[in-house]
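To assess whether the prediction recovers the assembly geometry, we first specified each molecular entity separately, as shown.
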Amino acid sequence: MSDAAPKAALCVRNLRKAYKDVVAVAGLELEVRWGECFGLLGPNGAGKTTTIEICEGLTAADSGDVEVLGMRWNTHSAELRQRLGIQLQETQLSEKLTVMETVRLFRSFFRRGPEAAEVIALVQLGEKRKSRVGGLSGGQKQRLALACALVGDPEFLFLDEPTTGLDPQARRQLWDLIDEFKLAGRTILMTTHYMDEAERLCDRVAIMDHGKAIAVGTPRELIASIGVEQLVEFSAGGAAGVLDVAALGRIEGVREVRAENGTVRMQVTELHQAVPALLDELDRQGVPLTELRTHSASLEDVFVILTGRHLRDE
Amino acid sequence: MSSTAWADHPLAQLTLVRFREFWREPEAIFWVFIFPVLLAAGLGLAFRNRPPDVIGIAAVTPELARSLRQEKLLDVEELSAAAAEAALRTGKVALFAAPSPGGAVVYRYDDTNPEGRAARMLADRAVQRAAGRTDPVPSSDRLMREPGSRYIDFLIPGLLGMNLMSSAMWGLGFAIVDARRKKLMKRLIATPMPRHYYLLSFVLARLLLLVVEVGVLLGFGVWVFQVPVRGSLLDLAVLCVVGSLAFSALGLLTASRAQTIEAASGLMNTVMMPMWIVSGVFFSAQRFPGALQPVIRALPLTAVIDALRAHMLQGAGLAQVAPQLGVLGVWLLVSFTLALKLFRWR
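The predicted structure of the complete assembly is given in tokenized form:
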């Protein structure tokens, strides 16, 4: 990519940042390789936004080292600003400007990059280029924000929760756009608390909790690391109280059983053996089954298994 | 849309944004352009110069009434003695004249009432002249009612100063706090935008709008009320620009840290309200006690208004308003320096 060719596009070492009474980042280590899409996945409050804003040079770290494109913020901020594309969480662009006016404004700050109209077409807002920003839908606003991040033809794109608050169709549209940037060879660092988004878009993921990366790898590696392929979930309705959970744990192929609020979650290695055995056992116990679901292990399960909490828990 | 090189300069784009945001906000247009004109029109109408008041008096006999009616400044009513007494007591007339034995005349009036005393002099002069008195020294009047000494002449420079202050302060303050609140400012500093361009764009837009703003109010005053502008237009432009810059800096300082519109509004009003009252917009600042005068004269609004009045009404040049320019210069420098130190970009 670059002549100096630093090994990694982004290198974060022992990063720490505390606000008045909260430690947001607690000794984070990260490395984002050239051309990859790297995801910071974690619940709200895990320190994702603080981390990405330190990497974007918007927040000062308390200690630690951040190297972006082989440069540091305190010595090369002007150069870095030209070469990075940044999308912040919840920026409200001026509602009284049109799409075209907004993109032209951002374009004027960069030395080089595509024409405003070109970027607008890229994010599929061509028909809306004369509309006021105030009249755009949530998904269109988010795509406009993306356009503003792309006007400088950045080598490295930072996306902070790009699809939060969007409806499923708008999310998929945005994912397709991000896919295109990946194909164009750009490096991307994104944060998300949607595991499906991370699995769909990211080459590698760091699962963050309490300001640390508790697991780093490709989504596939992370899922494999928990040694569970399938998960079975069922509800026993009103009979949940009499359920013998320990007996379920003795079924062959079942690794762990958790019961909460009438729902039972089991980690299973051999689905085809475990499900019939489970049905037999429930029948023996006289517990009626009101709902049964199985799914392949996901990043959500990785998070649950590593932390004992769900991603959506605040 | 043209894509000439200058238009793609970040400063040009930022300034254009300021204009667009302003023009697309109908309320802003009302407060900046229309409200001052309405205010000037209303006050000019209320305090317009009327023909000199005639004083109402009463006469008890037809002969007296006839003699008194010779005086144009008196409105004479013929009443019975009792009715005249009642009219005097209720303030309907300022005086009544009644005959007294031996051809003499008695004036009844309240000598603590200036109108009563004036009526006494006018009535007596009319009665004496009717009886054949001639004045030993001939005299005539030359009336002074020229533009420049009316209330509207005093008011227009005051409104101009007030408008310079409020549009600069609200214009800068609101836009900056709003951009900060919406995290738009943070988004902008995440680009390579030079930060001083951002601040400069507000000043540039302000100066360009100033031309329209001052033009509308001044044009209205000159056209409708024949308000004089006796100094040179160039000097007037310099005064307006320096004033607007000082208030812009003050607006920047006021908005340098506020995170919400509410906080900013409170601060703005705290800064501007005292000046609306003491700086002589609607009435002379001289009415405040002497001990306060040095403080009042150090306020930027007083300085602008005093300088504008001296320029427009007395034709003062820049040298004569140097003290006021000095006050504005100090406000500009101090506010701007402090604002840059305190400014919160996110």
